[in-house]
Amino acid sequence: MVDTLRILDHSPLGSFSSQKPFSFYAFFDSGLNVTEEMWSPYSITRQINDQISLAKALVIIAKESNNLQLAWEISAKIRKSQVLLSSSATRKSPLTMKESETVIRDMALLLCQAQQLHYDSATMIMRLKAKIQSLEEQVHSVTEKSSKYGQIAAEEVPKSLYCLGIRLTVDWYRDSKLQHEQMRKKSLAAGILDDTNLYHFCVFSDNILATSVVVNSTASNAKNPSLVVFHIVTDEVNYAPMNAWFSMNSFHGVTVDVAKFEDFSWLNSSYVPVLKQLQDSDTQSYYFLGSRGKDKTTPIKFRNPKYLSMLNHLRFYIPEVFPKLEKVVFLDDDVVVQKDLSPLFSIDLKENVNGAVETCMETFHRYHKYLNYSHPLIRQHFDPDACGWAFGMNVFDLVQWRKKDVTGIYHYWQEKNIDRTLWKLGTLPPGLLTFYGLTQALDPNWHILGLGYTNVDATMLENGAVLHFNGNSKPWLKIGMEKYKPLWDKYVDYSHPILQQCNVH
């Protein structure tokens, strides 16, 4: 396995400097020829380093064989060898045969002892392979658990936001003044909500605080807030607290209207494929039974029931939601606005339906990333290298939408994917299919993505009009990115009595 001792007859090896513990960066500091030192067959430093490398592997095997005494002895010899190398580096003088002989011999004898215990090369390779496989399985298990826990953390409603919803609901039904204020604002907005000369924005959300940030940041940066109209659609559970919040607060004079999708009579299972799929037992098992369902191999992120939420799919029904409007800007509830967005309404979409920022600067944001190209329907109709784009800030021409029956296109693909063979995750894949050939690329500065992850370019953050916290690390969660959270926090009034009562921070 190893020579018990190599008798060396050579000139001094030179010197190197380091700090304890020993590091090979020391060679560079001392001016030694590292390549010559480490490749020379007569180098004491190389011999000791080779012994250390082999000994470290044997420590693992000895522990695996439950020979803890041998493992302890080898570890002790490793430390002695490292101390010798470190001392030579510290004094900046070469190792001599006299000072090295005992350490090399003792280590060599111990390595020979390990060989006699059948820790030969073949055994080492087999055991190290087994160890590597075991570690890989552990890493896979930990990664899977981390993914599940991260998904759970992202899906759970923080106690503070739950408290906010409860308190606002209580206030709404207890304080008649709030309801009167809401009725007053609705009467004032009667002619405004359908006025096509104004700037109309829509947000579909059940998150009161996040929606408030979207509205507040848009209003704060608008040149003419009085021309801005926000159409908020939520669900029945959050309708009262959402109304309460926007009735008790004003946002620089913008008009805010709150509706709930349960009031849309046309939104039923006979018209909407997603609602029809919710009645299917296989779909219910896939999304709601989790590991108890039939399919246990699909990652948890693909099984999130939120992807069947009507608040997510309502973006494909905007012309029905706002039948009298001609153009709207759609905003996700996890964005923050830091520029005036009124110029979006004068952009020429060139008879396209959707104005969006493309995301194909990297290859993994092209169509083949999101769609199943082994399916003939996908292969026949869509270029795998077509450029992807992002939901979150979109300009929709509703005149062209109605003319080209875009909702009908969405229904076609949604029905074809009832068995989830065309795509698995979310609303972006059906969006890519629905708006294929109907999307106009916008200047990238209009929509900056990635604030739910790390390393967004600082210049992009400064120049971006809409910053998108896509990903699990939302700014209202404890797992949110601290470095980007101030961009969102500046539009939250943490001194608000209800926010303080609910410990929102």
Automatic annotation (TrEMBL):
Pathway the protein contributes to: Glycan metabolism; pectin biosynthesis
EC class of the enzyme, as a word: transferase
InterPro entries: GAUT, Glyco_trans_8, Nucleotide-diphossugar_trans
GO molecular function: polygalacturonate 4-alpha-galacturonosyltransferase activity
One Gene Ontology CC term in the entry: Golgi membrane
Enzyme Commission number(s) from the entry: 2.4.1.-
UniProt signal peptide: none
A biological-process GO annotation: pectin biosynthetic process
Topology in membrane: Single-pass type II membrane protein
Protein keywords: Cell wall biogenesis/degradation, Glycosyltransferase, Golgi apparatus, Transferase
Pfam families referenced in this protein's UniProt entry, alphabetically: GAUT_1 (PF25557), Glyco_transf_8 (PF01501)
Keyword Chloroplast carried by entry: no
Localization per record: Golgi apparatus membrane
Stated family: Belongs to the glycosyltransferase 8 family.
Protein name as it appears in the record: Hexosyltransferase
Source organism: Cuscuta campestris
